[in-house]
Amino acid sequence: MLSFLGLRTLEELYSAIPEALRLGAELELLDGLPAEGLSETEVMAWMDGYARANIPVGRSSVCFAGGGAYDRGAPSATRSLAQRSEFVTSYTPYQPEVAQGVLQALFEYQTTVTALTGLDISNASLYDGASALVEAIRLAVAVTGRTAVLCSQGVHPAWRDVACTALPAASISLEMLPLRDGATAWPTGYGDAGGVPGERPGAIVVSYPNYLGCLEDIAAARRLADETLAILIVCFDPVAMGILRSPGSWGADVAVGEGQPLGMPLSFGGPYLGLFATRMDLARKLPGRLVGKTEDIDGRPAFVMTLRAREQDIRRERATSNVCTNQTLMAITAAIQLGWLGPGGLAEIARRSAVAAHYCRDELCALDGVRPLVGAPFFDEFAITLPIPAQIVIDRMLEEGYLAGIQVPPELNTGSDKGLLIAVTERRTLAEIDGFVAALAKVIC
Fold it and tell me: How far apart are CA 200 and CA 202, in angstroms?
């Protein structure tokens, strides 16, 4: 290749790449490899050794980690149907006459998301929860014409980081509202003494439940949105909707969420699924794709992609959104999972998770030196304060066969490194929870 390009070295090939973007060091993956290189078979065997160093969830460890990605169950029916070749090999259904099955499945997905959120319309999915939040904020700014956004500190830190990376290019600024005892400290008035200074916001963002697992006062967020004429964006947990009021019933204008708990494995962080729903009057600003139901020339039901010839495809930098694709396979998986469970099954999973989580926290907080990090009500995820740094506990618990959780970010724990975020899903048995408590008691001694 170098000879064909008229180059002598790999360094010449990469010379156009700015120095700041280069690695600047050798990959540790290469340590121990012979200088003359390896054959393909030898490389595959070498990489397989790295793969075997991973600790599989469910076989070598019991997962109590959450923070946005959860070890939830996926019935055999969901896995089997979602992996059918008709879905796995399909891509973009640009020709509806040959893609009715995929289009119908996406239409059913949209229907289930609107039922979950209590809103009027859903798109055919986005990449993940973080990108869905960015798109929701861009929608709010396009509708209100205001570029300031009030965001609860209880929104997932990674989602906030993505927003802080993506939005400044559109001159959109985020102002964080702090937490008080686990829930957002909503200002009593906008522009009054003690209120929020600066420009009136175009959007108000809150999580339900929030990153610490706590239940937020969405009614207070709605009141602030009404006072400021802002768009209320609620980041929701789809499983929690089995027993909690929907964002739409609280008055949310837009609801976004991470769809991974709906039948998708952890998979090292992806591929996941961005859930997005909104009011009907905001449909023209909806990012991505929308599948609609109509009739063909013979009067038979038919499904098509609609709202496609729009500014996100043709206006480029002036577009509300530049998302022109989706997560079809993940969306279909979520639709199958929700269809299999039904409202009763989703409610049962949510109740089992909540009961197990409350039992687990009570047992943990009975240990010497362990106490709740915050006192706000929670769903199935909670934070505790440990007598020793959380990362030490996480490392020690791994040796005991448990993924113990995630260290609470210092900004959510007054700078301390002793906060541990723990998730308890419907998959955790009583024996696993009791074993987890016993192991934690051992490692904090």
Answer: 7
- Is the predicted pLDDT of residue 433 greater than 80, yes or no? yes
Instruction: Select from 155, 62, 158 the least CA-distant residue to 356.
Output: 62
Q: Tell me which CATH code domain 62-73+342-443 carries.
A: 3.90.1150.10
Q: What is the value of pTM for the model shown?
A: 0.89
Residue 19's CB is within 10 A of a number of other CB atoms, namely 7
The lowest-confidence range among 3-7, 195-199, 342-346 is 195-199
Paired tokens of 194: 């003690």
Cα-Cα-Cα-Cα torsion 263, 273, 276, 217, nearest 10 degrees, comes to 70
Contact 383, 390 (CB under 8 A): no
Buried b (16+ CB within 10 A) or exposed e, 233-272: bbbbbbbbbbebebbbebbbbbbbbbbbbbbbebeeeeeb
Cα distances (angstroms) measured from residue 176 to each of 164, 197, 336: 11, 12, 37
Report the pLDDT value the prediction gives residue 272, as an integer from 0 to 100: 96
Other residues' Cβ atoms within 10 Å of the Cβ of residue 444: 17
Task: Judge whether residue 27 has pLDDT over 80.
Answer: no
Using CA atoms, how far apart are residues 68 and 258, in angstroms rounded to an integer? 7
The domain spans of the chain are: 62-73+342-443, 76-337
Record the tokens describing residue 159, joined without a space.
């989602």
Domain 76-337 has CATH 3.40.640.10: yes
Q: Are the C-beta atoms of residues 205 and 398 closer than 8 Å to each other?
A: no
Q: Give the pLDDT confidence score for residue 54 in this predicted structure.
A: 81
Q: 């999580």: which residue's tokens?
A: 207
Classify residue 57 by its DSSP letter: B
Residue of 264, 246, 279 whose CA lies nearest to 331: 264
Strands 254-258 and 231-236: parallel
Residue of 198, 197, 216 lying closest to 153 (CA atoms): 216
CB 71 within 8 A of CB 266: yes
Residue 60 binned pLDDT confidence (cut-offs 50, 70, 90): confident
Does residue 209 have a cis peptide bond before it, meaning omega lies within 30 degrees of 0?
yes
